[in-house]
Each structure stands twice: as C-alpha cells, then as structure tokens.
User: What shape does this take?
Amino acid sequence: MSFILRRLVFYVVAAWVALTLNFFIPRAMPGNAVEAVMSKFPSLQPSAYRALEAMLGVGHAGSLWHQYWTYIVDVSHFDFGTSSSQYPAQVSTLLGETIPWTLTLVGTATVIAFLVGTGLGIVAGWRYGGALDRTLPALMFLQAIPYFFFALILLELFALKFHVFPVGEGYAGGLIPGWHWDFIGSAIYHSLLPALTIVLTSIAGWMLQMRNVMITTLGEDYVIAAQAKGLPNRRVIFTYAARNALLPQLQGFGLALGFVVSGALVMEIVFSYPGIGLLLLGAVTSDDFPLMQAIFLVITFAVLLANLIVDVIIVFVDPRVRVREATR
Amino acid sequence: MTVTLAISPDPTSLATEDAVPGRWRRMPTKAKVGALILGFFILAAVIGPFVTPYDPSYQNPSPALSMAAPSAAHLLGTTQTGQDVLSQLLVGIRLTLELAVVVGVVATALSVIVGVAAAFLGGIWDELLSLVSNVFLVIPSLPLLIILLGYLPQKGQWATIAVLAALGWPWGARVIRAQTLAIRNRDFISAALETGEKTWRIIAFEIVPNEVSLIAASFVNTVLYAIGASVALAFIGLADLNSWSLGTILYWAEGQQALQLGAWWWFVPPGLAVALMGTGLVLLNTGIDELGNPRLRDASSASRIAGHRVRPTAPTPVLQEVVQRRTGLARFLYSFSRSSLLDETEAGDTL
Assistant: This one.
C-alpha cells in the first residue's frame, strides 16, 4: 500500500505546483490583463478599470501571501471567480455545465482506444513482420495527424458529404437536456464522430508501444521455456508474454493521458461539442482569464486523478509491484 | 544465412564502398522513408519563400478568385480573399519548421543539462530535478501553454518558441538522466575519475558523446511536439495571425468556413503537411530505435524459411504446416519461388 501512498504524495505535490503556477503566472507575466481587456473594448469607461481589476484579481489587495492564501481557500471551495466573457456567470457554473460532456466523451473514447490498441499491439508483437505489423506505418500516419485536422476531415466526409453523422454540436437542436431517451440517444449519436476521431488517432500509439514491449518480452527465457513446454499459443501469449508486457503500457497510459486530453480539447472546437474545449476557445478569444485558469486547474486535476486510478490498477494487476513493496 | 549478414555487415562491401552510401543502405526502411519525407519538407522550407508564385498576403480583388478551386494559375486554389494557398503553404512550412527546430534545439539542450546534472549531482539535487520533471510530465501541457501565451502581450513567433521550449524538456531529461546513471557506473568513467579528470570534462567528452543517439531521439520527439503544439495553438488563435504558418492558415480556413463551403484545397494541404512531417519524424525515430535494438528489426532480422517469416527466437516451424496453410492462388504463386524447391528436396539434401 505504501506504493499508492507515495504516488498520492507525488500527485499532491503536482497539484500544488499547478495551483501555484496558476497563481503566479498572471502576476509574473509582462503586460497587464486588465489593460488587455480595456484595449479590446475601447468603449469601456475608465471607471470600469477598477471593476475589472477586482474581477480579474489583479487589484493586489493585501500582501502576496495573503492573496495566495485567499486563492487557495477559494479554489478549495470551487470558487474560481466570475467569468469576464459571460458576465455575470460564475466560472464554476460554466465548468459544471461542460465537464460531464468532456469527461464522458474523452474518458470512454480513451479507454476504448487503449483496450483496442493494446489488443492489436499484442497480435502485432506476436506475429511481427506479419500483415498487421506492416500496417503500422499507416497507423503512424493517422497518429501524426493533428486531432483537430482529422476531425475536420471526418466531418467533411461523414457529415457534409455522406450525411451519416450530424454536423457537430452535442445533441439535436430543440431537445431539452435531461434523463430521457430522446436526449441520451441524440447525445450518443452526436458523440460518435468525435469519439471515432480520438480512437483512430490515438490507437497507433498504444499499439506501437505494446508491440515493442511485447517483442522484447517474447525474447525472454520464460516465454521460450513456455513454448518449449508445448503450451498452447494462447496461453503463452496472454498469460506469459502479454501480462508482463502490460506494466510499461499502463505506466505509459498515465503519461499519455495529458496528451490525449489536450488533443481532444482542440478537437471539440471543430465539432462545436459543448465540452471544456469549446469553453476554453471562448475564453481564449475573449481574453477571459479567470475562466482560462480555472479550466487549466480542472483539466490538470482530472489528469492527476486518472493517473492515481491507473496506479491503483497497476498494483492490482501486477504482483511484482506488491512483492517489491513487501520486501522493501 | 541472412541473419549473420544483417547483424555483421559484409566486410567486402565495407571495404569497397564509400562508408556513407553503405550506411544508408543498411538503414531500416522506416528510417529511410522518414528521412526522405523530412528531406522534402526541409527543401520546401529552405527554397519555399523564394519560389512562391504570389505574395501570400496579397488579396486579389477579382471576385472570380474568391475561393477558386485549384487551377493552372493557382495550383492549390485561393482563399476567400483571393490569396494564393500554395504561396501561403510554402511560407508556412518554413515558419513552422523553423519554430519547431529552434524549440527542439533549446528544449533538448535543457533536457541534457537537467538530465546530466540530476544524475551527476545526485542526492537532494537529483530528487528535486527528477521531481520537477515528473511533475511537468504529468501536468497536461496544452492548457498550461494556453494560459502562458494568453497572458503574454505579444503572441509572435519568439513568444511561442519560448513557451514551448520552457515546457518541452521534461521527457528528454528523464530519459537522459536514466542513461547517464547507467553510464556513470561504467569502468571508463571510473578510470577517468581516477586519472583526475575534471567533472565538466568527463561530462562533455565521456558522457555526452555516449548519449548522442538518445539525444537525437529526444530532439526528434521535441520537434514533433513543437509542430503539434504550435499548430494547435495557432489554430485556436494564439499566434501572430498576420504571419503565415501552417497553424494560422488552418485558423483562417476554419474561421472563414472553408469546410462548410467545400474549399478542401484550403485546409487539406496544410493539415496534410503537418501530418506528413509528423509521420516522417515518427518513422525516423522508430528507425533509429530499430538500429539500436536488434529485436525490433523486423524484416532484416527475421529470416525466411520456406517463404515463412521466422524470428531468430521463434521455435522452428513445421514445414508441412506452413505449406498447407497456403490457399489456392498463394500456392500457385509459391510454386514458382525458390523456396518451394526446398520443400521438395529430402531433408539434408543440398539444393
């Protein structure tokens, strides 16, 4: 269990670094966020300056430590201030509306891509140089395509040309969000194309990594011994090779998650999917700093939490980690 | 028979031929393809801005040239305001590649410094530097890049380079630290320490030269990251929107509804260029990997037995089984091949 505990401490440190960065970036950056907003809207009265300062938290009330402490307390209450672009909406309300969309879409698609990619990697590693293995360069091409560009192409083909899927948005217009089948069905239908984008572009990464680890594992003596004993291939592949090859794959999952999430955010913009990515775009185009910063924090915390879950899974899946802990 | 050939180069070919073409021929196919793709883009980046048929920013007022499909005068068509897409693309490749290479150099230098320092200083410094790189690895970079760039008053090329380089080093640092720790315990380092060589000299002349392939791989990865991130940032509008990079072309295409209006010639070429550059880099890296790890080499290390690919580590296949698995056409074609003769000769017979 101390493995989990140590990881937990690490994630707490990471979360604290993110929080602190988030606090200091606006204060350390050259230029003035308030002036940026003022110059964007020249019609604003000079009296709005003070109001903006207070709203953006750059009024520097009290000492730096005092500000820092207030900031930490506010964040721990999920109080991220007021959005300046969608005034007077609270940032936390805006986040609450968009998080479920992104979480469901990115979560499901990533897990599917991971499972399918790992499965394909096992097969490609087992018969390497084979037909599946030789499709890898093509898959690498898919992986190298920026998410949002792949989304554009899929949208052009399947929505605008063949009308198989809807053109963006989270659900059909006119529906009222709620727990009834019309809405849920429509939401699933609208999420298919974005999910397909994530799966197709991220599958190659999982597959390539699993294949490489698989090939290295297949060269191990215990795998050759298992084959020499005449065990059926299926048993050699899954019980002997794949299970051992899975550990680096799971560790890689945690690290790659941030990358996948980043790509998915920009992809949402293409589909006008009502998730955090679209909210982030709105915040960027209108210089809505409180919203931008809150989104950064929320995404970081989500990725850290997912990493912690992966660590728990590693402990359950891999007896070596448990043994190492016991002998420590 | 091919196994030995692949592992140790044929001595005669080395002796008679120039070393460079020989090395090129022995490179894994993936690396060759990757290098060719990249070579094409580097060429485009070098000569591109000099051969643009038009000024990329020139807006042709002729209404016939608003979102015109590709033609002889405009090979990749025009944008909504009558700008030539090919010219924008040629200038854009230069700008994007330039940015990515500078970020790659700076971030890789940072990785080497941090990685080697952590491994050499040891103790609390190692713990601290490792912790910092691990923390920045786990924090998703794009949202952080967005707030950093969002707060910067000028979002030009150099601002993007600075921000990308500042966040691009942790992965390389981690890998290089691990490698430095491994090299540090080798005998030649102990020998150098015993002879009283200075630490900086050991690092510069003993350690770093032994990590060149790792540093190269880290550089390739960083360039890949820089291309992807800069294009994504420009796509959401966090760039100098008056300059032409692959990302800003896509930004204007998206903003002016190129997709909805069916102007594929506007947004497909820049996206395709990004994807191809990325593929080239990934292929190059995989190729380098295979060069270093013989187990990952597919075609070169697997010999063919009776037309069936067999790895050195795989158990010997039963020939009969292999032959029987062929279906009609395959068996017919196979009967012409040299290895089919092998099946028909008695075991132990020479061909």
User: Anything to note?
Assistant: Chain A touches chain B through 69 residues (CB under 8 Å).
